[in-house]
Amino acid sequence: MPFKANAARRHHIPKQKRKVTNWATYDASLRQRGSLTVWLTDEAITAWQAVPRTTRGGQRWYSPLAILTALTLRAVFRLALRQTEGLIGSIISLLGLTLAVPDHSTLSRRAETLDVPRPRSGSSMDGEALHLLVDSTGLKLCGAGEWLVEKHGTRTRRSWRKLHIGIDANTGDIVAATLTTNDVDDASQVGPLLDQMEGPVVSFTGDGAYDQDSVDRTILDRDPETAIIVPPRSTAVPSETAETEPTQRDRHLQCIAEKGRIGWQKLSGYNKRSRVEAAIGRYKQLIGDGLRFHKDQRRTTEVNVAIYVLNRMLELGRPISVRIA
């Protein structure tokens, strides 16, 4: 039950108790997240050196896979670029390899043009229907301003970027993402998120920020059969054709009028939207709540690498929990 609906009496409601039924497997997957063998694969070592180019221009020393491997280690262990260079150099030395080590400036420069593998939905690969959950969050820009706040306690206007993500409700994988400035409306990013989907989307679930006609048109133009699960605003009124040809929004309003918002959330499946909020919390806990690159294109690559890392961690193992109280 939503927190806002019980804010005045929340202290009387006992907290749910859940039990992880696959703890042994999940515990092993948590240990694997810190294993170098998971992130530095034999494939990356074999393809470390760039393929010789046949056109005019300077020769690259490192393949895109080598740069992706380095930035992946940076995201997993939360390292600066110079520390990433040192980590890769020590690993190559311990393995007894004769590979060159990309320096920090090379990693920064190549991040601007790196093509990170796009996330793929586990449901789409298994032939299952994709239920898309969307939300957005803010990521602060790390820089001199953060140091001044920590060192001297001064106040400054912090800059930040907005991360829009879409996850697969069945698997929890992040299947779409966009990074924009902080003044971009959430609804305007529905189209770019859907463009990253390969197959049909059975349902689209978002919060009240997506209660706009433009969102409905964008979704239904792509797939008229998609169920749009977005809570209407408190001031919402039925459309002019609600009696003859009710829209999905009209039916949501009718259900809310009959059963209340809590009842509508249970019937429509809106409560599943908490999973995308959990994904955002997982991102900030494991990756961090800031962006360390100083250019927008490199920040986009940083986010894409982070999503690649999070999905890889979920592939290693995810908890299966049941409610016990």
Can you characterise this structure?
This protein is α/β, with parallel strands linked by helices. The protein has two domains: 14-115 and 299-325, no CATH class; 122-292, Nucleotidyltransferase, domain 5 (2-Layer Sandwich), CATH 3.30.420. It is 43% helix and 14% strand. The strands form two sheets. Strands 2, 3, 4, 5, 6 and 7 form a six-stranded mixed beta sheet that branches. A two-stranded antiparallel sheet has the order 1-8. Helix 4 packs across helix 5 (81-95) and helix 5 packs across helix 6 (104-110). The radius of gyration is 23 Å and the shape is globular. The two termini are 15 Å apart.
The amount of helix comes to 40-55%
**The number of domains:** 2
The CATH class of the largest domain, by name, is: Alpha Beta
CATH topology of the largest domain: Nucleotidyltransferase, domain 5
**Quick one: how many beta strands?**
8
What does the overall shape look like?
globular
Per DSSP, what share of the residues sits in E-state strands of 2 or more residues?
5-15%
Order of helices and strands: EHHHHHHHEHEEHEHEHHEHE
The CATH architecture of the largest domain comes to 2-Layer Sandwich
Summed over residues and divided by their number, the pLDDT gives a mean of: 89
CA-based gyration radius? 23 Å
Distance between the termini: 15 Å
Number of helices: 13
Judged by helices, strands and strand pairing, the structural class is alpha/beta
Note the main sheet.
Answer: 6 strands, mixed
